[in-house]
Design a protein that fits this description.
two-stranded parallel ribbon; 2 domains; mainly alpha
Length: 180
Amino acid sequence: MDGYQGNANDAGAAKRNPLQALEQLEKLPADAPAIFILRDFHRFLDDIAISRKLRNLARKLKSQPKNVVIIAPIVQIPRDLSEVLNVLDFRLPTVDDIAIEVDRLAGAMGTKLEPSLRDDIIRSCQGLSLERVRRVLGKAIALDGALNEDVVPLVLSEKQQTIRQTQILEFYPASEAISD
């Protein structure tokens, strides 16, 4: 949380205390329209005081021109909050979205990728968020100074690490072609 910005209390109030952050929301005038963005707030949803405050806020804010948005990389809604929270899943980027990002990065470096390399990079990035695509391609540029044939193994390695962290799936790289 960066605290509350752009309002009368612009000193970063409740910057590190989630309960205080929710209490700040309650203190605003009922007729003042607002959208509150709570980043990484999912970490606090299991706290009983936070849960209670969110349920009370949900009831109170229904009649006010305000919305609370919790932005989180993972979604694990406690059962007691399932009736007051709505979950919006954002889709992963399409092939076209990834292509635009790959072309943008290559263009920023003043390079034009060979079509086959471009397609391989785009294909290897499927299943990653655009933020993760940017990060892994940035890492490739930092390591090699360019987007080249070393990008694909790096992307696959990043995917493997992500999958390994879930402890649910296991990653096996394809070692045989269809012709085998």
